[in-house]
Each structure stands twice: as C-alpha cells, then as structure tokens.
Amino acid sequence: MRFAPLGDHAIMISLGSSIDEATNRRVRAVSAALRAQPLAGVVDLVPAFASVVVHYDPARVAGDTRVAPYDRMVAELEEQLEHAEAPDVSAARVVEIPVCYGGSLGPDLEDVAKRHEMSPDDVVRIHAGGDYLVYMVGFMPGFAYLGGLSPRIATPRRASPRTAVPAGTVGIGGDQTGVYPLVSPGGWNLIGKTPVRIFDIHRPEPTLLAAGDRVRFRQITLSEFSDWPS
Amino acid sequence: MNTTFRIVTGGLQTTIQDLGRVGHQSAGVPGGGAMDRAALRIANLLVGNDDGAAAIEAALIGPAITFDGATLVAVAGGDLEPSVNGAPVPSWHPIMIPRGGTLRFGRARFGCRAYIAIAGGIDVPMVFGSRSTYLRAEFGGFEGRALRSGDLLQAGAPSALSARLAASLPDHGAVARWSIGGTLRPRYSDDIIVRLIPGAHAGALNDVSRERLFDATFHVSSNSDRMGYRLEGVELALDEPIELLSEGVVFGTVQLPPSGVPIVLMADGQTTGGYPRIGEVATVDLPLMAQLKPGDRVRFRPISVQDAQKEYFNHERELTQARYAIALRR
Fold it and tell me: Which residue in A76, B22, B127, B136 has a CA-CA distance of 20 to 30 Å to B32?
C-alpha cells in the first residue's frame, strides 16, 4: 500500500498495477473500511482498478496542527487500513441488463463477428453468456468499467471514434465491454442497446452499477426493447 | 417576496455554479462548481450570502439581466465590462440595482470569467447536493443548461445580513464605497506563474522535459473549457511510455497524454483518468488558472504539498477575517 499526494486536497492510495480480481478486492476492502468508519476530514472516495483516491478537507484532519494535514492524513490512513479485510464476494449484487443486439441499435455487431470469423449470433451468445465484474465507476457519471469479456470477442477500438454514441449503447473496446450511460463521443464497437437507464438523476439511486457488482447481459427482441417501460 | 430576474441576453456560456458536488465521485459524478472559487466566494460575502451560495458564472462574453425589484448584487473575478442601466460599475463592491434595472456585461477586457452574486443566492433545485450546472450530463443549475434569453429565475430568501447591507444603500441604485481587502483578490494576469505539486509521474519525464516543465512558458489552447485546458507551445515527453490504469484525478491535475500536450483538468474534469500525471496545481492558484483564456501564458513553479496547504490556510484565514468584518458592518 503506497500513499502519495494528489494535490493538496487528495491522497492516492496505490494497491497494485494490474487489472485482476484480487487487487480489486483489496480496493473494495480499503473503500469499505473508510466508509464504515469515516476519518475526520474525508469528503469523498474514488475507488478504481487498483487504487483509491481519498478527497479530504485539510482544515478538518485530526491531529497535531503543527504537522501538515497531508502527513497527518497519511498517518491516520495507515493506522486505519492496517487491518482492512476483503469484503465477502459471495455477497456481490448481481445486476441483469437486457440488451437488444445488432441492427441499428448495434451497428458494429457484423464487423465484430467478421473479425472473429463467427456469426453475429455467436458474438451475442458469448457476450450474453459472460459473467462480468464492475471494477470501477468513473470517467463520466455512471460509467462502469467491466472486466470479464471473453478474449474470443475482444475487439480493438474503431480507428475513428463516433462523435455521439446514444445513451444505453453497449460496446466492446479492446478487452473491455460496457454501457454508455450518457450520450457521448466514443470509439468502442457498438453491438447493442439496453432500454434500461444506466444513469438517471430522477432516481433515488441514480447510478445502476457500483464497484463490486456482478453484471449479466440478457438478450431481448426489438419488440421487447420498444415496449420496455421507461 | 424574493427577487425575480430575467435573462435578456445569455452571453457565451453563462451558468449557475456554487462550490460543487461532494461525495458522489465514486458514481462518476464530477465535483464541478465555479472555476474561480475565490471570486465566487468573495462575491457572495459582499452581498451577505454564505460564501458557497449559488451564483452566476459568465465566460468571455457576459449576459444582460433585468431585475424586477431593487436587488443587492456583487460582481467579482474577471472584468467583463459590467454596467447598470448603461453606467459602468466596478467589480468587488456591493451594488444596489434599482427596480427594473439591467446589469449588462460586454466582452472580457481582463480575465475570462465574472461571478455575479445575488443577495439570497439563486433558487434552483439541488442535484447531488449542489446547484452547479453540469453541462455535459445536462443536470444541475437551471434545467441543466447555460442560461439564455427569456429565462426567468428567482433569488433565494436574503439573510438578515443581506437585508442590512441592502438597507445601507438607496433603493434607486448605488455602488457601495466599501470593498474587500486587496490581498484577498487573486492577482489575475494573462501571464501567470502557477505553483505545481509534482505528480506521480513527474519523475518519469525525460531530462529535457523535466527542465522545461518549470522553465518554459505554456500557452492556453483554444480547445479549452470548463473540463480542461490544453497547454500548447512546449511539448513534454516521458523517458519511456507508461501504461496506466484509470485512477482518480482532481481539479488541477496536469495530465500528459501521448501527444505531449499537457492538459490541466478543471472544475468539470472527469473523476478518473488514465494518462500520466505530472502534477497538481496548488488550490490557491486555481483561480489564476480559471481566469486564463485562449492564448494566455502560464509557467509552473514547484511547491511541496505541505507548503501548498500552508498557503491554503493563509488564504482561508484571510477570507474568514473578511467574513467577520462584513458581518460587523452596519
């Protein structure tokens, strides 16, 4: 566990340098410990693949005020995190996301299939058959970085990104897959679309996915997609 | 009855901002809020508001706003040629706008962003604990968007202090003689020196780039906005490329993409990023950065995180003293 300043209002806790479930479990353990017993001055946490950023208010950190708040905060964090334990992964929430694959909702499905010399149906079966872990949420509101895409359908990003990908579009970019929560420019291969809102500020819990959730995609037909209650 | 006001012309990008969102970054929701927090806070104090009340941020070309009743306002930050009913008014002073009066802005003569605080703040719904407009996801502020001609807004209920400050000025319009201490006003310039806390990958810059970082003058690109500023003119390079996983970034993080053109993440910057980080701008210097416009120049000087926090406390202490001094006015 390494600590480093991220400016004068945040600290970066580094826990590794690779995308793997064991490292990410430690990330979740650290965030869970900091949430369970919030330290004075901590205002926000940003867990990622292999790190946690702690945002803090330097004026509210505990300890001897002759010592800089950064140094006090690091000491407090070290003490609190010494015994942080990994959360029980069997308790992970499973979120099912219905997807209508191909057609105008997934204009790159054919390209992805051709690239891997399989049929579009094969791509759908592999994608919808996967078990995915939300490693982190970031970059834009509600955007979940999913791990667990089968290497058989991993596909490099498109050479020229689209300027506006509609919200709800499901894409593959390299060995990652995910759902665009908002309309956004994007370079991923678009294979389908979900009628479910991934991010909606009018819901009490605006983001559908949180770090540590497991995700399954389920294929639906175009008429199910059109009739989906909004 | 709280003041209502109407946007006559919207200006280039006029939004409602406060001190931003806290506690929602793990959902990917950026902090957002005013680019120049110092100006926002001082403008609010001048009208008797909490320093973090929602106010109007105008950029480069300001709006025109008509107030239906006599209203206490203050303008701070960059100079966008403010006038009331055609007569120029100064920034950094409380101003009483007469009933039906119009506060009009022109173009940025100096700096980039002006803040208009209104006694009582602005009555728009809170989204994730803030009234700040987040344009990219279209939420917060007024209908999640920049203000435009015809918008009708309402001020919040003025505090007792606001009422007392207003009572000391005539209803038919006037500018208060008093202002805020000169040292509290950021030393804006179009050629600034900004203090940078060296970042995780500053040591990975090649020898030439490490010297350039604290030596060269960077220019703000025209491709700069509330999300980030691109700094042109001097390219930086790492000894060898670093493959990084996405991780948390902050308002003031200086990223170095493979192009070699550094990007300073600003108020609406994303919560996480995957580019090497060569430093973070000291919080006290973010207002200077926020007032830069395309073509303006910036140089960096190194500062330790400990010294940056000392500077931050000094600034906060001065602001607290100013708040007390204003509260004691009659």
Answer: A76
